[in-house]
Design goal:
- This protein is of the alpha+beta class.
- It has three domains: about 5-100, no CATH class; about 105-195, Sandwich (Immunoglobulin-like); about 205-354, no CATH class.
- The protein contains six helices and 19 strands.
- Helix 2 runs antiparallel to helix 4 (about 50-70) and helix 2 packs parallel to helix 5 (about 75-100).
- The N and C termini lie far apart (about 95 Å).
Length: about 350
């Protein structure tokens, strides 16, 4: 016959233990599960190896005290052995799994050097990294690991083939990174699309007309005349159907800003001839700089419409292009925007007429 009193005499039984003891069991379960992931490279990158290691150990330590106290601080040896097993077994097993895997982390782009870099981790001697664009290889490199890690660095000009997204953030070119270890384990990740929008091809211009009232002393009549135009420029990934409208406005609604390096020249043309030119705009990332003949050095950011320089300031200090500086005769005037990308030597120069 089973001893029906055995459960009642078992102080470690879940049914007999106090509330604090049950909390201790719960903490032990959570800590035990977390110990399996202690070797995770991804979690270490997010939390740091020391903070993440402290968390499950703190849970198991608190659990041990609550359970030990709940059983009247008896059976110490049994509890110590049990908790040591909960600590070491999953950690060793988890590390064995992690060590056989390839960890890829810390993928970033240095805008100053135009380089992409990432960290590879694992317990193997060497690794080969491969980047593809829509399945076609654009770059590969092999390297030995030191202290189970190596940082790969590659120039964007070596891997870039086309912008990853369109103006609506729909992926057009899928960039993927695959790392294969010397033990034939491999990991593949998608490179964040927004990082791979590197070529500026779109621009839009709009302008507003500034007027003044002229009084004729001989006839006592007055008339409104145009004294100039204020020009604005947008740069980014744009809907091809957007463009200039009557009256100087633009139908451009939403456009996608990209961070890359290029220069922009804006000309006003009449009859195919350039009648006025803005100074060259240099863009580094999203920061645009140019020189105004009125106010000197000017800066702005391409996340907004850029108010371009002119030939004179109005009463509020805003610059505009005087009519007499570009006007030749009645007819059609257009804006020519020339974009020169700096990413690589064969980067195209885009000319946009509006």
């Amino acid at each position: 016959m089973p001893d029906e009193s055995s459960n009642e005499n078992n102080s470690l039984s879940f049914a007999n233990i106090s509330t604090n003891g049950k909390i201790g069991y719960g903490l032990a379960l959570v800590g035990f599960i977390l110990m399996w992931f202690l070797g995770s490279y991804e979690l270490q990158d997010y939390l740091g190896p020391i903070p993440f290691g402290i968390l499950p150990l703190a849970l198991l330590g608190t659990s041990f005290y609550l359970v030990w106290d709940a059983v009247g601080r008896e059976k110490t040896v049994v509890l110590v052995v049990a908790y040591l097993m909960m600590t070491t077994v999953p950690y060793i097993a988890g590390m064995s799994f992690q060590n056989s895997a390839v960890g890829i982390s810390d993928l970033t782009i240095n805008e100053d050097t135009d380089e992409l870099s990432f960290m590879v981790r694992g317990s193997f001697n060497s690794a080969t990294a491969l980047i593809t664009a829509n399945g076609v290889e654009s770059w590969s490199e092999s390297s030995d690991l030191s202290n189970d890690m190596h940082r790969f660095t590659v120039s964007l000009s070596e891997v870039f083939t086309a912008n990853a997204e369109d103006y609506n953030s729909i992926v057009q070119t899928d960039y993927q990174l695959t790392v294969t270890s010397s033990t034939d384990s491999s990991t593949t990740i998608s490179i964040t699309p927004s990082l791979m929008n590197r070529e500026m091809n779109d621009a839009s211009v709009k302008f507003s007309t500034l007027t003044e009232i002229i009084n004729d002393d001989n006839t006592d009549e007055s008339r409104v005349v145009a004294k100039g135009i204020r020009i604005e420029l947008a740069l980014g990934l744009m809907n091809p159907s957007d463009g200039p409208m009557d009256g100087g406005e633009s139908s451009l609604g939403v456009y996608k800003t990209i961070a890359t390096d290029y220069s922009v020249d804006v000309n006003v043309k009449f009859g195919g001839n350039v009648v006025w030119s803005h100074s060259t705009i240099t863009v580094d990332g999203i920061d645009a700089t140019w020189t105004s003949q009125v106010s000197g050095a000017v800066s702005g950011q391409t996340v907004y419409w850029l108010g371009l320089s002119g030939t004179v300031e109005d009463d509020a200090g805003a610059e505009y292009l005087e009519r007499d500086e570009f006007y030749e005769d009645d007819g059609c005037y257009t804006f020519e925007v020339t974009i020169t990308n700096d990413l690589y030597s064969s980067s195209p120069t885009t000319v946009i007429d509006e």
